[in-house]
Amino acid sequence: MRLVVDLNKCQGYAQCAFLAPDVFAMHGEETLVYSPRAQEEQRERLARAVAACPVQAITADGLDGPSGPAGEAAREAADGR
Amino acid sequence: MAADYLDWLRREGRIVIVGASLAGLRAAETLRAEGFTGSLTMIGDEPYEPYDRPPLSKAVLLGKASPLHTELPHRREVDAKWRLGVPATGLDLTAKRVRLADGDEVEYDRLLIATGVRARPWFKEEEGRLDGVFLLRTRDDAARLLQRLRSARRVFIIGAGFAGCEVASACREMGLAVTLAERAGAPLVGALGGVIGAVAADLQTGNGVDLRTGITVTALEGDPAGRVRSVHLSDGSEVETDVVVVSLGSLRNTEWLTGSGLGAGPRGIACDAGCRAFDFRGIVTDDVFVAGDVARSPHALFGYQFLSLEHWGNAVAQAETAAHNMICRGADRRPHLWMPAFWSSQFKVNIKSVGVPPMGDQIMITQGSLAERRFVGVYGHQGRVVAAVSFDNTRWLEFYQRQIERGAPFPVDYTTVDRRPEGRQPVDADFPDPSLPTHGPTVTLSGYSPADQQLVFTPARH
Amino acid sequence: MTQASLFRRITDFANRADPYPLYEELRRTPVLHEEEDGPYVISSYWDIRSLLHDPRISSDAANLAAAGDELAEAQSTGLPPSFLRLDPPEHDRLRRIANSAFGPPHKPHRIESMRGELHAIVGGLIDGFGEAREIDLVDQFAYPFPVTVICRLLGVPREDEPRFRAWVDPLVATLDPETRAEADEEFVKSAQEARMQLGMYLAGLVEQRTKDPQDDMLSDLADSRGPEGAMTMMEVMSTAVLLLIAGHETTVNLITNGMLTLLRHPDVLHRLREDPGLSARIVEELLRYEPPVQIVPQRTCIADIEMRGVTIPKGSRIWLMLAAGNRDPERFKDPEKFDPDREDIQHLGFGSGIHSCFGAPLARLETQIALSELARRLENPRLVEDPPPYRQNAVLRGPRHLSIAFDALR
């Protein structure tokens, strides 16, 4: 799964680093570092981190699943705009 | 533009995007999201699918990410023909054709140029070819540099802009001895001025970097095997090193447009607020759009100056706007009104900025303290707030962004939490070569939500 | 005045079960100032959000006291104010030290590694329903779960719950505007006393940890020796009191509001049962739709602030109506609809800015697990009483009891 964080939006709330600590880490008080390629076993944690981000700064693909934000329903919703 | 042409374009037109990095990818996604069903061709000089660059000088060097795996997630299928590893070499505006390095030509109905920038090489070509001398812009650069750093002991970095400072920080975390040389009086002065530059300098020296300012590198010296072994400085000194990282900013990738008739040059490609490129006569084109680092576009909030922004967020926002404008009617076009913003992290300190700091001539530390390296600084120009910078204080920046959008008065005349004595008066922001925009009418954004923001034009008072 | 003022109707216990029509009315006057010494009540999303990031807004208890709030002073007498009631730089320093015992960068796995334990506690509580086919979700689940968790996390003996409960209740009551309005000297004194007692009790535990450190937050707080030094004993006490109370009071309501909402939306409950991963999005939507903290009533402004043509004078008290902002149609499409599929759920449920909820990641994880396990294990669950009886508190709003009937346990 590929991911990117819009670090202009990021305000260091660290929710992702709490919920998916093997993908996201705080480096200092408010600097986020992350792995742009997450392992398959991180799927659920990554999805939780994406959902919990208070500034909705995380974009990930390959999360497709019934509850993944990049799921088919979300795609259709985007198409309908 | 005739409506039926647009309908046809959206349905079966040919759009070509030159530049397959962040801006190119986001533009392609936006085109598809907004209903473009014609053919889409993505041309990129690197043989890789679009990848993210900011991690290359941070997470990658810190060992938190692989240089080979920073590919950008896709927001949606783009269904494009990818021509990767083949640079564009020419443009024929009349025939509407892009020439490629392999001799191919690709025809378009509308073109988006997002060719970005490349690292400025060391000015002496032969020295630049020495083994151990690196640039850092691409994933290949990062992979090579990382590999060499693993066996190095000493690193010499030329140029203390953001990238140079980030590399210095990562190298110190790897335990390497680092020398950082900068022509100006302190790191980051071009971007943030001397007041903040002094804090950046303390950050470097406090973390064990041998910082040399007010100095230039005159020569790189190699050993008989062609491996770099030392750096000669303008004060006559010589520093031995295993690795040299040349971090002297960037060059805009516009050479391929030479002679095309577009208004393209070393400063980028000029375009209007709707991302349409100008030709060299200053007349806007109909079918050529520009986005990302290579674009220069007028910003209403900053005196309509043409801003070239090498910012990640600008590439995304401008790509979205350009793509939208490429396939919509004139009245539905949007201006590219993105608030400039960037981030950097050095020695675990998060540095963020909004607005255009170099436009400011004064700065006020409205919250926190420079000495503690936790603060917000506000830049003013001609009585208005034009930018803000924070060190480990990012959660306040939203407020200052609003102040910039509203053209709020400067100096800041209200109380704020955590105001220290040092922050009561503005001081000279100390930019080396302040760019002074002409005094003129002002434009501000108003409204309570981003959704209903309106541009307000206030004519100059005489 | 023919009718009670709008903000008094909002704080009126009679309207606790459904304050949302009042919030809608409130948003028509987004900057409401009804009584001369009363607060400025802010109810639109963007205004709240901007004030949460506005450095002219103070959380300092001393400023609140100066603005005429006597209880603010009472709460901070004896023990120093917690970081919730402080501005930077003190707020930042204390919160950083507290965070070094709680999360990244110092303890990146502390919360995530509790997942298995949280599942076990939830499983145990549900098993404890036994043969009963009607339960009170609050007393049997939503309260004991977060209490057990915060006790483990801090290192407070679970069996001491009745003891600290007696101190927590009067303290939490001081947050309720209606209760405050009627507070006499006696009430103020007892709240003050309760805070001190609770602080002393926790200080005793910290003392033990100093001698015999365990893998818990009190041990780390006692041992905090970062570059900024340690907290003083008084600061440790204030912080521990805050963490103990905030660590469960709000989560009880989030879980209870969550189950109530799911039972009112059986389609979503059904989907959660099929797909526990949906819990992450359900919890975010809940934080928008039924946030456990409805109002932030403890801010003051330290400079004049212009907002929608109204000048809020320096020194005024400000109430931020998070729950009203969360249903602002200027911000959210179909705001009155509970819809975990919405693409855009940037809610104010945990606040925003420097005071955003410290325990948010724990509350998220607890509620995700609680709701997905309840959905999985209760066969045909249904509400016995709708609306349920509510607690008095208008700020920390939630049902006092939630009777649920079901056919069987899975």
UniProtKB/TrEMBL annotation, chain A:
What cofactor does its activity depend on? Answer: [3Fe-4S] cluster
Q: What does this protein do?
A: Ferredoxins are iron-sulfur proteins that transfer electrons in a wide variety of metabolic reactions.
Do you know which PANTHER family this protein is assigned to? FERREDOXIN (PTHR36923:SF3)
Tell me a Gene Ontology molecular-function term this record carries. electron transfer activity
Output the Pfam families linked to this UniProt entry.
Answer: Fer4_13
Q: Which UniProt keywords apply?
A: 3Fe-4S, Electron transport, Iron, Iron-sulfur, Metal-binding, Transport
Stored SUPFAM superfamilies = 4Fe-4S ferredoxins
In this chain, the stretch annotated as Disordered covers 60-81
Native species: Streptomyces lucensis JCM 4490
Q: Which InterPro entries match?
A: 3Fe4S_ferredoxin (IPR001080), Fe-S_cluster_ET (IPR051269)
- The molecule here is called Ferredoxin
Gene3D superfamilies (UniProt xref)? 3.30.70.20
Automatic annotation (TrEMBL), chain B:
Asked whether the UniProt record includes Lipid metabolism among its keywords, one would answer no
- Annotated FAD/NAD(P)-binding domain residues: 14-319
Q: Where are the transmembrane segments?
A: none
Q: Disordered: where is this region?
A: 413-448
Compositionally biased intervals (Basic and acidic residues)? 416-427
Q: Which Pfam families match?
A: Pyr_redox_2, Reductase_C
Which keywords accompany this UniProt record?
FAD, Flavoprotein, Oxidoreductase
Write down the required cofactor(s): FAD
GO molecular function: any one?
oxidoreductase activity, acting on NAD(P)H
List the GO terms this entry assigns under cellular component, sorted alphabetically.
Answer: cytoplasm
InterPro entries the UniProt entry points to: FAD-oxidoreductase/Apoptosis (IPR050446), FAD/NAD-bd_sf (IPR036188), FAD/NAD-binding_dom (IPR023753), FAD/NAD-linked_Rdtase_dimer_sf (IPR016156), Reductase_C (IPR028202)
Tell me which residues make up the Reductase C-terminal domain: 342-411
- This chain's protein is named Pyridine nucleotide-disulfide oxidoreductase
Q: Which organism is it from?
A: Streptomyces lucensis JCM 4490
From TrEMBL, chain C:
At the top level, the lineage of the source is Bacteria
InterPro entries, A to Z:
Cyt_P450 (IPR001128), Cyt_P450_B (IPR002397), Cyt_P450_CS (IPR017972), Cyt_P450_sf (IPR036396)
Q: Tell me which Gene3D superfamilies the record gives.
A: Cytochrome P450 (1.10.630.10)
Q: Which GO terms describe its molecular function?
A: heme binding; iron ion binding; monooxygenase activity; oxidoreductase activity, acting on paired donors, with incorporation or reduction of molecular oxygen
Q: Which residues cross the membrane?
A: none
Which UniProt keywords are listed? Heme, Iron, Metal-binding, Monooxygenase, Oxidoreductase
Q: Which Pfam family, any one of them, does this sequence belong to? A: p450
- Cross-referenced PROSITE patterns, in alphabetical order? CYTOCHROME_P450
Assigned protein family: Belongs to the cytochrome P450 family.
Protein name (database record): Cytochrome P450
